[in-house]
Design goal:
4-stranded mixed β-sheet, cell membrane, mainly beta, transmembrane, Immunoglobulin-like, Cadherin-like_dom, calcium, 350 residues, PCDGD protein
Length: 350
């Protein structure tokens, strides 16, 4: 009997036979008591009675898949004789149960460095139906393209694995739905939430936002020479950056922005005549393990200021000349030099 059969349906049972005649062969039937079934007798034209099994209430195969009944036939003799037959009622399955997930939300936390093909989590759904009606296949619901590119689900086992490289900096959490479908087309849905943990896989990046070069050599201390930006795409300690400046120079890293927005500031007076430029190396290190570093090379040129007077090669020149030296004769050649450059170092005599 199909479990969708409505109450009141009748199912003919085998009639009993009695070799006696007359009253001794008149048969009546009895059925073991069961709330789901009753017995009815249908009169046949030959005055015999056909026993029929009557369904009294809706069946549910998932609660009870079969019934064991006993049908007894009694004749009209004295004493009465009887015969019995076992009646087994098998309830056939209807696809009246959808799949049910063991959880409505499955959560997992994995490292962003998880290799492609690694197991992330496994979902599980059950179906109370039997046969193909209870056979479940798993698939993604309507998910974004980035989810289907990074994850796959095994239709039979419900295992969710990585299908592409994960990147915490691109997306630290993925939330999407997964569905289970039975052989009859009924579906159920659950939600998956996959959180990524950060790995120290990014080195700090240094960007020179502005650079004042050349710098006048008479610039006062405290002058900001360069504005910098230091960024590490990792999070937590992996993204905490400290900076240091290497190279002999009257410059230092400071500024109100801290290490993330450092400034290159003049801390000592410049002297172009000692150094026309300064080559610096800015190194940024994060707090990960192992530590990752980023570097930037900066050349600061010094622009000349007229801060040097000409200097004669001698402080005093002694010249002896005869009194009859002709007019226009060269008596002595004096030289003066100026360490400044350009016009600041061009010397004129008078």
């Amino acid at each position: 009997i199909d479990e969708r059969t409505l109450p009141g349906a009748r199912f003919p049972l085998e009639m009993a036979r009695d070799a006696d005649v007359g009253r001794n062969s008149l048969l009546t039937y009895e059925l073991t008591s069961n709330p789901s079934f009753s017995l009815a007798l249908k009169d046949n034209p030959d005055r015999s009675q056909q026993p029929e099994l009557v369904l009294e209430r809706v069946l549910d195969r998932e609660k009870q898949s079969s019934f064991e009944l006993v049908l007894a036939a009694l004749d009209g003799g004295d004493p009465a004789k009887s015969g019995t037959v076992n009646v087994r009622v098998n309830v056939t399955d209807a696809n009246d149960n959808p799949p049910v997930f063991s959880k409505t939300l499955y959560e997992s936390r994995v490292a962003e460095s998880l290799p492609v093909g690694s197991l992330v989590l496994q979902v599980r759904a059950t179906d109370a139906d039997s046969g193909s009606n209870g056979r479940i296949s798993y698939s993604f619901g309507n998910v974004p393209d980035d989810v289907s590119a990074l994850f796959s689900v095994d239709s039979d086992s419900g295992e969710v694995r990585t299908a592409g490289p994960l990147d915490f900096e691109e997306n630290s959490r993925y939330s999407f739905s997964l569905e289970a479908t039975d052989g009859g087309g009924l579906t159920a849905h659950c939600q998956l939430q996959i959180d990524l943990t950060d790995e120290n896989d990014n080195a700090p990046e240094i960007t020179i936002l502005s650079l004042s070069s050349p710098v006048p050599e008479d610039a006062p201390t405290g002058t900001v020479v360069a504005l910098l930006k230091v960024r590490d795409r990792d999070s937590g300690e992996n993204g905490e950056v400290s900076c240091e400046l290497s190279g002999e120079a009257p410059l230092s890293i400071t500024g109100p922005g801290g290490d993330q927005r450092p400034e290159l500031v003049l801390v000592k007076a410049l002297d172009r005549e000692e150094a026309a430029f300064h080559d610096l190396v800015l190194r940024a290190s994060d707090g990960g393990d192992p530590v990752r570093t980023g570097t930037a090379r900066i050349r600061v040129r010094v622009r000349d200021a007229n801060d040097n007077a000409p200097v004669f090669s001698q402080a005093e020149y002694m010249v002896r000349v005869p009194e009859d030296v002709p007019v226009g004769s060269v008596l002595v050649t004096v030289t003066a030099t100026d360490p400044d450059e350009g016009l600041n170092g061009f010397v004129k005599y008078s």
